[in-house]
Design brief:
By secondary structure, this protein is mainly alpha-helical. The protein has one domain. Helix content is about 80%, strand content about 0%. It contains 10 helices and no strands. α2 packs antiparallel against α8, α3 packs across α5 and α5 packs antiparallel against α8. The longest helix is centred in the last third of the chain and has 55 residues.
Length: about 230
């Protein structure tokens, strides 16, 4: 029976090592995001998702010269900071948009939007032109729809960019894991053939990143299977 259980132990050790290697590779890549181009991977995907009209609106809000630095800084911090910057910038741009294409890009009626903004402004001015409740309710409805549309647009654009960023992160983590495994294998004397020794290291590096998030679950599964076989 012990000979039947040996493969379980061997596979468990392999998965544990792969999980540790994958976790370490992810950690190194995450640490590099703050100072390397990897931190802005997927940024161009975000700009394409936003579109030219929205980017022009953001340039008007934040200033075209400083926008790139603001965008990169928020992008490096993560999706929450990025969405806040985009939402705030586009909400400011909604207040009296100069570019009709901006409202059109968000699938909004620019005429209704301008009328709603005017109604809301008039309602805030004491002694200004009278605004009846029906107009005010209609204006609030239009502005509420505009804000919901803007939020949905921002969330979709950020999700698209973050998906690309995750893909790049996994790719580079995989490269780091493979290089790390091969480097260690090159420093450790092989038990058998050199090709087999390096082949095992390469396999370990290749599976490290996909296995890392589920390595503990896989080890638990194998241990449960080993106990079940042992009882038999």
């Amino acid at each position: 029976m012990p000979t039947l259980l040996t493969p379980f132990d061997s596979l468990t050790h392999f998965i544990t090592a792969a999980g540790a290697l994958g976790t370490a590779a992810f950690g190194l890549v995450e640490a590099a995001k703050g100072t390397t181009p990897l931190g802005v991977a997927g940024l161009r995907r975000l700009e394409r998702a936003l579109g030219r009209a929205n980017l022009r609106a953001l340039h008007r809000t934040y200033g075209k010269e400083g926008w790139d630095h603001i965008l990169r800084g928020a992008y490096r911090k993560g999706d929450a900071a990025l969405m806040q910057v985009l939402r705030d910038g586009l909400k400011v741009a909604l207040d009296g948009p100069e570019d009709k294409e901006f409202a059109k890009a968000l699938n909004l009626d620019s005429g209704k939007l301008e009328a709603a903004l005017k109604t809301f402004r008039d309602s805030q001015v004491k002694g200004g032109p009278g605004v009846d409740e029906a107009q005010l309710q209609e204006g609030r409805k239009v502005l509420g729809t505009a804000e919901l549309t803007l939020n949905a647009w921002v969330e979709g654009a950020v999700a698209t960019a973050m998906n690309a960023r995750v893909g790049w992160t996994q790719c580079w983590a995989g490269i780091v894991a493979i290089l790390g495994a091969l480097s260690v294998a090159a420093m450790v004397p092989p038990d058998g053939s050199l090709a087999g020794h390096l082949g095992k290291a390469l396999l370990l590096g290749v599976v490290a990143v996909p296995i890392a998030p589920i390595s503990k679950d896989l080890v638990s599964l194998l241990k449960a299977a080993k106990e079940a076989v042992g009882r038999r």
